[in-house]
Each structure stands twice: as structure tokens, then as C-alpha cells.
Amino acid sequence: MTWFRHGGIPAFILRRVLLGVLVLALVSVLVFVATQALGDPAKAILGRDATPERLAALRQELNLDVSLFEQYLNWVGGLLQGSLGDSLTSQKPVAELLSGRLINSGVLVLCAALVSIPLSIAVGSWAALRREKLVDTVSSNLMLVFASLPDFVVAVLLVIFFSTTVLHVLPAISPVPPGQLPWNTPAILVLPTVTLVMTVVPYIARNMRVSMIEVLESDFVEMARLKGLPERLVLIRHALPNAIGPAFQSIALSLAYLAGGIVVVEYAFNYPGIGGALQDAVANHDVPVVQALAMLIAAVYVVVNLLADVATILVTPRLRTRL
Q: Is the N or C terminus of the chain more exposed, i.e. has fewer CB atoms within 10 Å?
């Protein structure tokens, strides 16, 4: 890790930010090229019976009569100025169209993160402390089972168990009433949140277990025990901070997955978030909306990974001492 010796954390953050900008620039090119495969938006809006004159007039109105390179520059220029453009189907600004759905998805991701991260750390640490015992065996097998289940399967099983044949204590679908926010009806958040938690906890917990076992077998933990420190103090002050650092990478990947994988869960529960918006935009050939959501998810990946790298350094004493 040569970056430790060349400017410390500020220089590292600067390099990662510049790398993130480069990644987003490349993603913008891929997104723009991919959205061209959706077809001609003018034809999608006017239908098959549109005359060539009406198609030409609409393309000119939507600035689709210029070259692809000019369209790309216009789109990127708008992004840099904070403009996501206008929806082709509703003629409303994309930011206005997506604002409510972004809030709904953000609430769902936040709920899942607040539950899954502490739970994963606790389960992984406890399994490592009791490794090769009954607790470790049972938890490892359960994590393996949950990790093998796709999102939609978990969603269907939860609906069957809690909303239909077995119990009927939670709503099977999670629509947010118009004009209200998700936390006004918290019951609709339970099943989608549990689905996301069951999806990401196995991955984080298993990585946390491996990291904790490695730390518990390290020399500095053994030295702390030889000094006569209480076992609880050894675990909290020495083992956990060093074990949680490597786990931050899996936490970051899981949070980034939530930003993109939430689409399936929202569709399964009819939850009005970015998943439904993306589905409708693709079906309607609403290119600006698809581009905005794709760039948003890519930006979340870049930011979350940057924060995870910085957090890994800050919480890991062994890494901080190399600065």
C-alpha cells in the first residue's frame, strides 16, 4: 500500500475522488450508448401510425435531430449543471418526477442498512468467538441458505408466511398512499426491509466472521491477553476495531447492492420507488429517466466505496499507524 507513504489520507481521498470522476465519465458513455438501444423515443411517443412530418417535428422539439455526439455533450453538460433533463413522456423535469420515488427508496435502503449492518457485525463476531461450536455451525449454515436464495424468492416466502396462508399480520404489498411519506405507514416497510436484510446479512456476516477469526489469532491480540486485560476489553478495544476494517468493504458492496438490487424488491411488493420508475421508463422509452437513474446508481457505488475505504483506515489502528 504505497499510498500510505505519499500524503496520507487527504492525498488518498483526492486520488480516489479523481478515480471516481473518471469511472463516472466512462459510465456516462456506456449509459448513453446503451439507452440508444431502447429505440427512437419519438416513435415510442407518437406510435406506429405517426407520419414522417410529425416524427421530424417531435425529434426537433426534443433535440433528437442532432448527432449522437452533440446529444451526449448536451446531456453531460446538463448533468454538470445539476439538470437531469425533462421526461419525454410526461414533459416534467426528471428531478421533479423522481423526487418522491427517491425518498421512498432512500427510506427503504436506510431501514435495511440500520438493521443489517449491526446485525451482521454481531452475528459474524459471535460466530467467530464460538467458532467450530454449535452456534458457529448453525449460524454458518443459516447464512449459507439465506445467501443462496434470490431476492424475489425471499419476498414470496415472507408474503406467504406473514400475509397469506400462515399468518396475516402484515400487508402483502407496500403501496405508499399519494401525498404521504413511507414512515407514515410503517407496516408497509416491514416485509421489504426484512427481504433486503436477509439478502445482505449473510454476505457481511460471513466476511465479518473470517476477519474476526484472523484478528483473534493475531499476535497483538495475544499480547493484550498476556498483559492481563479482561477478555471483554480485548475484544472491544483490540479485536473488533481491527476486524471491522476489512468488513467495511463487504458492507460497502452490500449498500451499493441495495441501491441497485432494490429494484427487484420494490417490484415484488409494489413499492413506489426507483424500481417502478425504471421499469416504466424502459417500457415507455423515456431515455432521460433511464439515464438519470443509471447515473444515480453508479454515483452511489462510487461514493459508498470511497467512504468504505476511508472508514477502513479510520477504524483500523494498524493502518493508521502506517500514515
A: N
Q: With 50 as the cut, is the pLDDT of residue 3 above it?
A: no
C-alpha torsion 310→31→193→139, nearest 10: -60
pTM for this entry: 0.78
Q: Which residues of 278-308 are buried (b: 16+ CB within 10 A; e: fewer)?
A: beebeebbbbbbbbbbbbbbbebbbbbbbeb
Angle at 196 between CA 192 and CA 200, to 5 degrees: 170
Residue 108's nearest CA partner among 193, 173, 198 is 193
| Mean pLDDT, residues 246-259 | 76
Q: Which helix (H) or strand (E) holds 3?
A: none
**CA torsion angle 213 217 219 224 (round to 10):** 80
Cell of residue 122, nine digits: 454481531
Residue that has been written with the C-alpha cell 449492518 in this structure: 117
First to last CA, the chain: 11
pLDDT digits (tens, 9 = 90+) for 82-130: 888 888 777 788 888 888 888 888 888 889 889 988 898 888 888 888 8
**153 φ/ψ sector (left φ>0, alpha ψ -120 to 50, else beta):** alpha
Do 222 and 141 contact (CB within 8 A), yes or no?
Answer: no
Rounded Cα distance, 252 and 78, in Å: 29
Distances (CA, A) of 14 to 9, 25, 307, 321: 9, 17, 12, 20
For residue 206, give the C-alpha cell: 460471513
Nearest CA-CA partner of 285 in 49, 32, 40, 34: 40
